[in-house]
Amino acid sequence: MIETLSKQIFDYLTSDYEYHNIQELSNILTVDKTNIIDEISKLNKTIIKNGAEIYINNNEDFKFIIYNDKKFRKFLRNDWYKLAYISQESSDKYSRYKIILRLLLFSNNYIKQQELSDMLYVSKSQINKDMIEIKEHLDNYNLSIISKPYYGMKISGKEKDIRMAIKDEIGEDDILFNNNQEKKLFKKIEATITNLDFGDDYYLSHINQQNLIIHLFILIIRISNNKVIVLPQDIEEKVITFKEAKIAEKIINELQENLDIEIPYQEFLYLTMHLIAKNSVVKQDKISQEILSLTDDIIKEIYRVTNYDFRDNIDLYFSLSTHLAILSYRIKYGFNLKNPIINDIKNHPLSFQIATIGSRIINNKYHVKISEDEIGYIALHIMAAMENPNKSNKKNILVICGSGKSSAMIMKSQLENQFKNQIDKIETTDLHNIKDINLEEFDFIVSSLNIILDTKIPIIYADIIFKDKDVKSISSAINYHAINKMNKIFKNSIYLKHLKVKTKNEILKSLSLEASKYINLEKEYIYTQFQNRERLGNTSFSNGVAIPHILEPVNTDTFMIISSLDKPIIWDDNKVKIIISLFIGKDNGDMTLFYDKLGTYLNNIEAINNSANFQEIEEFLELFLNL
User: Fold this and answer.
1) What is the mean pLDDT of residues 340-344?
2) Is residue 482's pLDDT more than 70?
3) Rounded-to-integer distance, Cα 406 and Cα 82, Å
């Protein structure tokens, strides 16, 4: 979207409502003087009918004058867009979408499709196609398009939902502002909020502060058009008991004084709801049992569906509980928190998929479908937990060295550097003092000496300065059970190579048929399970891989169906050539290493491209083990 010359002239002349000469305008706008005079003449033909005029004196000085403020403001609200903007290019679908959406969300009047067609320089049939997608987007906000013969179309829905759509779909985009006055209003609100002291019990991150400023800007624009929030009667007695009500009152008072406006009481309540939903300070002793139980259910669901075990991860338990305490208010009051790094988070597909699985518990409890933005925030907690495995999975190691304490400390230091996240405790000793050590406390021993001990604890022999073979031996000992588990998964798995399918549903049906041969479930049931998972959120990624899966454990050992395609297919919005479908079975065991390797694979484009040409499933196992 680009501004017209008319809008540029309008913005400049209304910045101070003083006289400006033609040469000044030509220099500022870098446009020929003749073009400026022609554009002003054209602009005057419209605005003179609507309470304003660009006055030209004998010296060719220009001044913007408003004769009828009420009439002119109505024109700005309803018709100014026809002169102010044109599409950056007629084929720019995203640009058209933004323009059409803004017009519908801010207009009080009906808009004809022919008007949009003329304005955006595209055919009416193209506008019809655009409107299909726009209607789908508006459905997410409980908004609909109503049409009236000979009048056009307009948005129908609750004011709260219209504001939510404006904030989420337009945000801080320049198209949010209709003119210079609105840009100045935004800056005044920004200054007011930036200088406000919220107190120690309320914290706004930079993102939430910008969200608050946008919320207030939209609030003021909408009430100036007599569009006021209507809330249920029982809301007041609930929200005014929160400390955020005092902060909302402070904000309202500051804005009313600084902007010389009056903000209705219902808007104060709505602002309080917004502040409750965005507060980042939650004391753990204030988290309700309901939220703690919800967190527990999410972690259990993740384990049930994926066998990824966070059940003893106390850090995840409390960080996720704190997050869910605030999320519950956002859901309750109908607020959504935009996630500016959602695309970066989705570049870590595994944590995002695990978060999506956990989100099903939230959806079921609150009867909603939380957005990808919100799932992304949960994925950040999952990502952190995956970087810091459960203490129960970490190993205790005894280091034995015959060359003195300093040599033992060198070996300990190398272990800490190489395997920090996998080790709980390392102790050092020498042969003389080993009799005082309870060897049963350790998972294995690393020794620089060839020793004979009366113990079943594995002993790994290594040089004081580790060689590659030593590191591999220690890694195998640390991951012994996990490597066995991964070998077993691949041994049980199926590889369907170079499938000739054209759609996502075709491949899901093929997977369902193949799985039904291996497990005691009907292919129709498996296919329904796949579809249920797809409805939760995308399982495909921009790296060319999809990881569809069912949401229930199966009655066999854990296995995969890996498929490579003869030609890539479109899976939702991505081109996919590799499909990895995991079926979690009854054989509980440590799958941490498997998921670590899967996550590494999903972030390695070279590995993905190479695997597309594999002939045997053993090649996938070798690839995973070497990642």
Assistant:
1) 84
2) yes
3) 79
More confident residue, 420 or 119: 420
First-to-last C-alpha distance (Å) of the chain: 45
| Tokens of residue 182, six digits | 């609105």
Q: What is the pLDDT of residues 374-388, one digit of tens each?
A: 999 999 999 988 877
- The per-residue DSSP string of 142-174 comes to T-EEEEETTTEEEEES-HHHHHHHHHHHTTT-G
Residue 282 pLDDT: 59
Regarding whether 449 and 383 lie in a shared domain, the answer is no
Residue 500 carries which DSSP code? -
Buried b (16+ CB within 10 A) or exposed e, 151-187: ebbbbebebbbbbbbbbbbbeeeebbbbebeeeebbe
Do 549 and 590 have their domain in common?
Answer: yes
Q: In terms of domains, do 311 and 380 share one?
A: yes
Average pLDDT over residues 77-93: 65
Pair 532, 600 in one domain: yes
CB 411 within 8 A of CB 446: yes
Determine the Cα–Cα distance for residues 90 and 113; give it in Å rounded to an integer. 15
Q: How is residue 195 annotated by DSSP?
A: T
Burial class (CB in 10 A: 0-12, 13-18, 19+), 601: buried
Instruction: Report DSSP state, residue 111.
Output: B
Q: Considering only 21-25, 421-425, 560-564, 589-593, which range has the smallest mean pLDDT?
A: 589-593
In the predicted structure, residue 398 carries a pLDDT above the cut 50: yes
Asked whether residue 32 is domain-assigned, the answer is: yes
pLDDT classification of 408: cutoffs 50, 70, 90: confident
Q: Both 513 and 621 in a single domain?
A: yes
CATH at 501 = 3.40.930.10
Domain that holds residue 622: 488-626
What is the pLDDT at residue 284?
Answer: 58
* Paired strand residues for 400: 429, 447
Rounded to 5°, angle at Cα 296 from 425 and 387 = 40
Between CA 614 and CA 609 the distance in angstroms is 10
Residue 403 φ then ψ, to 5°: -105, 15
For the chain, how many structural domains are there in total?
A: 6
SS (H, E, C) 466-497: CCHHHHHHHHHHHCHHHHHHHHHHHHHCEEEE
Contact status, residue 337 vs residue 394, Cβ threshold 8 Å: no
Tell whether 405 and 459 lie within a shared domain.
Answer: yes
- Rounded to whole angstroms, the Cα distance separating 248 from 212 reads 11
| 564 shares a domain with 504 | yes
Mean pLDDT of 195-199: 84
Give the chain's radius of gyration (CA, Å): 32
> In whole angstroms, what is the distance from residue 188 CA to residue 38 CA?
35
Residue 36 predicted with pLDDT over 50: yes
Q: How far is CA 143 from CA 99, 132, 134, 165, in A?
A: 17, 13, 10, 9
Q: Which two tokens stand for residue 540?
A: 């495909």
Return the percentage of the chain with pLDDT > 70, whole number: 95
Q: pLDDT (tens digit, 9 = 90+) per residue, 204-259?
A: 777 788 889 999 999 999 998 889 988 877 777 778 888 889 999 999 999 999 99
- Residues 384-397, mean pLDDT to the nearest whole number: 77
CA gap 349, 379 in Å, rounded: 9
